[in-house]
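Worked problem 6 (solution included).
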Amino acid sequence: MKRDLEIQKAFEVADDSLQAVQDYHLYVIAAQKSSDKDKIATYFPDRGIRITPFWGRYYDKHEVIDFFGSHLFEPIQARVSLTYVTSIFDDFLSRFIKHLADKGFPQNCNADDGYRKRILWAYRECKRCPLSAVNDETLKRLPMTFGIIDNARRLRNLIVHNHGLFDEDYENSAIRSDGIEVQLHPNYSEFKKNPKRSIPAIITTKDLLNFVWFHVEALHVAHNSIQEEFFHVTDGYSYEAEKKSLELKNLLFGDSELEI
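Solution. The predicted structure is:
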């Protein structure tokens, strides 16, 4: 039997996009560390900057450059990159669920259900993956893998909805089903000691890379499982066999044929 190519394409776009986020993050950090402040200043407006189509605001461009040239740049960029990672993965799950339903394989989770249901659906699907398509260690660590994926999403929610500050919902909203291991950010323990304090979730490049790697691994397991369960293809996806190179442009264009 042959793989379903529509499912495979959705997988490849998500796979390339997740890896592109990692490469983009590393590029931006490297560019920031090697940048020349004086040269950057030549590209900034001198005294004012537009903040709406009609309003401007005075600012000191050197203050802006100094701020983004400080040690704060990396955790800011890591937060931005993390939101990309969780959005790409969540969109991929929705696409998989929709593609399967369109092909006559409705799931117990809809494409537009909440992210928690989609993560649980993916976890249960991954657990059905045959050993012929992945190795035993990958399957054994799925409870940890999906705990990390869930943690990434909850951190993303803090970033988007709570200025990146811990709240009680961060722990309370963790998925506690099917043996998924609850993962918590190490700084959360400081918040637990005194919930009235404003404790930020600091994300480093090391954290970001770890999140990317486990999302990519889960992506491959889910794809292999779906191809085996619904399309009877038992051999796991292989970059070499598919002659598949990394397409960084998928981060921007997805499966579009548009070229710039």
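Discussion: The chain has a mean pLDDT of 92.
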